[in-house]
Amino acid sequence: MRIYLIRHGETVHNVAQVWAGSTDSALTNHGMLQIESLGRFFANRSIQFDHVYSSDLSRARITAEGICRVQPSMVNGAPLTPVLSPDLRERDFGSLEGVRIQRATGTPVETFPQTVTDREKVLVGKEKESKESMRKRSLNFLETHLLPLLLEEEDHCERRVAIVAHGLILRALWFCLTGFFDPSSISVMPGTAAWNGGPPALLSPVWSNTGVMEILISMRPICSSPAPQHSDMDHGPDEALYQAETPQPDSKVLPLLQGWSIKIVGVDNTEHLAGLRRTRGGIGSASYDSRQKRIDSFFK
């Protein structure tokens, strides 16, 4: 099985550098172009998905729908449509949602400088969702949707599955998935830019908007590869939590998928965005309006 873990397109919260979390943040015009480019990327390479799963938040759902729109019809002639799951929602940041985070070098995540108004908002509000809650949601999604597909897959029929969600929940999902495997059975495709050293089982991935992580799961043994170097790409304010909250594998739990292997084929692949430029005049960063026929109408 090939699994593609995909982050949603750019949103107005991403542009403003504020926490979005469970808030239904609108996609920007540039984000819609990213989605269109991603859909064409898969279609042009004849990457045909058997299943597409998505967070039910609109930024992920619309991204998934954009991918499905240019996919071939299913065997029964019906169009491919995403299966929506609230388990794939982004972490609920509580009162931090909508708060602008200005990263300061060497400053702990919880003490990032904020405006007075934002600081007051955080002090009187609710706590963000715990990592344990995210872990439970991730495990529920895997056990409900992904593992049944994997265990019934036949050797001659390799499924392709897309999972469209958000940076932090994708990362939680990744850690839960790798927990089903023996760490020695996890390897990396040579040349993959992923992290700054260490065993593949401890990979701590990040995602740009519409970035794609591709992994291959197989019952056949896959040889390990040397650890690649870390990419210096800026991933926005979420990067702070990526670096500060890296869970470690639970050595007390025996791997569920004994005899299986997982290979990391690509991390945060944004090849489809090559040559894509943001529309000037603030149009690219503006919230997308579905009533617009096409974004290129701005140039006419």
TrEMBL record:
A GO term from the CC aspect: cytosol
Residues that hold substrate according to the record: 7-14, 59
A single MF term (Gene Ontology): fructose-2,6-bisphosphate 2-phosphatase activity
GO biological process, any: regulation of pentose-phosphate shunt
Pfam families found in the cross-reference section: His_Phos_1
Residues annotated as catalytic: 8, 90
InterPro entries: His_Pase_superF_clade-1, His_PPase_superfam, PG/BPGM_mutase_AS, Phosphoglycerate_Mutase
Keyword terms of this UniProt record: Hydrolase
Protein name: Phosphoglycerate mutase family protein
Organism per entry: Penicillium ucsense
